[in-house]
Amino acid sequence: MRLRGYPIKNWYFMGIAVAMTIPAVLYRTMLHLPEPWMESIVFGVGIVGAAFLLAWAAEASQVEISAGLAIAVVALLTVLPEYAVDMTFAWKAGVDPALPAFLAGTGPEPSSLELPAANLTGGNRLLSGFGWPLVVLLFFWRRKEYVHLTKEIAPEVVVLGLAGLYSILIFARGEIALWDTGVLVILFFIYLWLISNAKHEHEGEMIGPPGVIAGLPKVKRRLLLSVLFIGAGAIVGIAAEPFAEGLVHTGEEFGIDRFILVQWLAPLASEAPEILVAAIFTLRGNPLFGMAALVSASVNQWTLLVASLPVAFSLGLGEAHSLPLNDRQQAEIFLTMTQIIFAVVLIAKLRIGWMGAGVLGLVFVTHLVFNSTEARYVYGIIFLVLTAGMLVIQPEHAAGLRDRVFDFRDAIKERAGIT
Fold first, then answer.
1. The listed CATH number (2.40.30.170, 3.90.1150.10, 1.20.1420.30, 3.40.640.10) that belongs to domain 9-414
2. In a 3-state reduction of DSSP, which class is residue 276?
3. Is there a smaller number of Cβ atoms within 10 Å at the N or the C end of the chain?
4. What is the pTM of this model?
């Protein structure tokens, strides 16, 4: 990795991101917003600004930690806003006054119960259905080349695939149980353990604000990184609840289906910085880092984020309990699960072309138009058929999966010092 001097404009970019967070802090601590839609805008913009700061700080941290771990840190911290918003929805579902009657079978289902799964599934589908194809198609447009990954991405591929397959049980049971939390947390920490000394290469120069941060003297760099991590994380924490509340009340005020509003608007605010960072890397000729960061973010969300929801729900309820999923949420879980499985098979051979990425992106874009429960199952079945077709008609995909499993096994042996 190379570092060099950067023009003052990169400090301006950081200043803009900081400025985006200031109204959220002011209105959270001292002022009052009269309308829910204003809350959604002010706190949503604050979350976007904080997410950019987290992304830049995490990327710059590559000079402090291994490149493989840096990718995981980038992915984890840039989806922190998604965690905060989703856990807010789960906690609020737990404290809903109508919940005890529903759990006892004597009352209707509280509407708050559907919102955690809305944000969760929307964020995951946005990452793999829009973010991944964007990187591949941008690189093909710029270089007329396929995106080539390395076998070091095997932990991400295998763990995401296992999490996708495990979610079949969640879908079938119609709940996210606390033992699911245990399984998914174990998967996440196996992944984290494996990539903590991985050697993903960040080719070329570190660009933009991360390059400015990384180029500072060690003491100043570490001080600035600490301020960015703590400050931006705190802003995400204080903005998450009013942003979530604003979305719900905005939907009620304007007659918009709040499930759809929460499913797509909230993830757009929290995922946009990460997808933009990945796109910038791709346009600079380094799609490997951008793609690896997005895949790692998918791993984070479909393991640790899913695992956190029944915990937040139980804390709100005041007792240990599974997070129930109604018919609509089960359909959303089914579609997200099948999209993940398709995406994993697509990238397992470590070479992704415009056609495969185009199919993934096309199915994602068209499914936005059809929001019924039945349509979700239809699209999920389409993904399963496409996955089966890849494995049968193009044996290199099956061979790629087998090789990634072997790479995963070898990574475990190497990390554990087994010869």
1. 1.20.1420.30
2. helix
3. C
4. 0.83
